[in-house]
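ingest -> validate -> predict -> emit
validate: passed (alphabet ok, no gaps, 240 aa)
predict: started
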Amino acid sequence: MREKHVLVVDDDASIRDLVGDYLSDHAFRVSRAADGSAMERTLSRVSPDVILLDLQLGNEDGLDLLRTVASRADTPVIIITGNRRDEADRVVGLELGADDYITKPFGLRELLARVRAVLRRAEAGNAAARRRADRSVYRFAGWELSMRARRLKAPGGQEVKLTAAEFNLLSAFLRAPRTVLSREQLLNASRVHDDEVYDRCIDVLILRLRRKLEPDPSQPTLIMTERGMGYVLAANVEVI
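emit:
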């Protein structure tokens, strides 16, 4: 099973190190960010499974950062508040999309339990969404992909063969049209077996998919490159 990735956002270096080291000792991959800018840089490169976000980040408003995260991804967020009396911030945070909260000072065992619980809920939700998606047919730019039959039809009606990794990659784009997907997200989506797809192979897979979808793969109009961020499917998608 893939190692789960946690992003810890806190301006207190001692908290970042304490939480990061503890989660690393419990088989999590951990990234650390001291402020909103560092968080943005990290999110442009990787796609964590859960974010621990301190609402008190010096002069920054943690609720604004939460809005930013909620607007760009479905990543679960656990907010950290510095005072048990900060009920208003907790309520607003939950209304903005946070999945849970914990107050300082907190026990590391409790934090670990909350991280695992949020991940379990996210996995359950994703599994249900995948079951629904597996029965879907996606239409985009004249193309049609049947998830159940695993069949891709060109605008002219002819069937186009896809490898398992290409099918998984195209499915990931169709589930998130007009959304930039990072290399890590595409890497995880494209895996057939744990050793099936390597990081640099994403570029090769994208090229192979473009050769099947694009009239001119050297001038793509469907699968676009967002330099330094990833790739995006630049088409509207209809689900039937």
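Confidence is low (pLDDT under 50) at residues 192-199.
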